[in-house]
Write a structure and sequence with these properties.
With about 350 residues, the chain is α/β, with parallel strands linked by helices. The protein contains 13 helices and 10 strands. It is globular and about 60 Å long.
Length: about 350
Amino acid sequence: MRYVEFGSWRLSKVGLGTSQFANPGWGYGEDYRPHDLVRRALALGITHFDTSDFYGAGHSERILGAILRDVEGVLVATKLFNVAPSARLVMARACASIDRLGGPLGGPLGLCYLDWANPFVNDRSLMAGMRRLRAEGLVAEVGVSSYDLARWQAAERHLGAPVLVNQVCYNLLHRDAEKALLPWAVAEGRLIVVAQPFATGFLSGAYHRGKRVTGPWRTLDPMYSSDYLGRTAELAGTLGEVARAHDATVAQVALAYVLRHPNVVAIPGASCADQLAENVAAADLELKEDECRELAEAASRCPAAKTDARPWLHAPKRWVRAGDIKHWVRGARLLAAMAREDRRVKAVEDLQ
């Protein structure tokens, strides 16, 4: 395993993402054992675990907290989904995450992300909440997730301090990060955390070889249609050629492609211990420059992947109960009241 020394952290190049914990949408089945997977990750040298307050309605955080709260030398990073311009809501949700995680290492959250660049919300109030969390010693470092460069830089201005980390979707089918985010991160000493390096498993090669698509997240995703699989066959073939040259798997090559950058770490999920070990081994796979160029060229000839990067936001209609609507309405009213209160607080602060 390779590691990145970043700030006070020693991060494994390959971490463990936990969006699949307690989430039937990926189709892993009842025999999926996330607790065992976390213990196996520790044994393999993984020091970076990524979660969110909306993964399994907080259950992912509880799983990590139960195992990692007394483990030293690991970073547990969680995300707060950006739903309303409320500093108070940010603080309340961060405190709830701290409670579920059991206070990792007996201290604050090592890294707390503001997740999703909500186009209807300005980050000023949200970063005010993050600033208070830092001042009170509840959060050590602040990150953002799915932000473009302009909004990342704006978030830093609102925070009044460096936002050290940006977690973005980056893989051979989504290479926008290479244009602006990666160069700026290198120049300014920031870190890119890669989510979905396999494009939700599409780049593993298994589906091009005929693996059956299961789970509502993938079966509803047009990327897994027979048409798109056929139109990306060239990329799959190039991945296979590079994999054979290194005695590696296609998935390892796809992961090594994004890990080649010195200021990049990745947080792929894993369906089992064997897949986790395969991901870890990819950290030591060094691709040649001409191989990376061939992969990028083959990827550039693929049609745009028309997929939803956040399928968990769209549950099948059969999962929605009529009785839930009143709770959603009540929650929306609460959020609106919080937003109004935060605007009043902001107005008072501006006058001081």
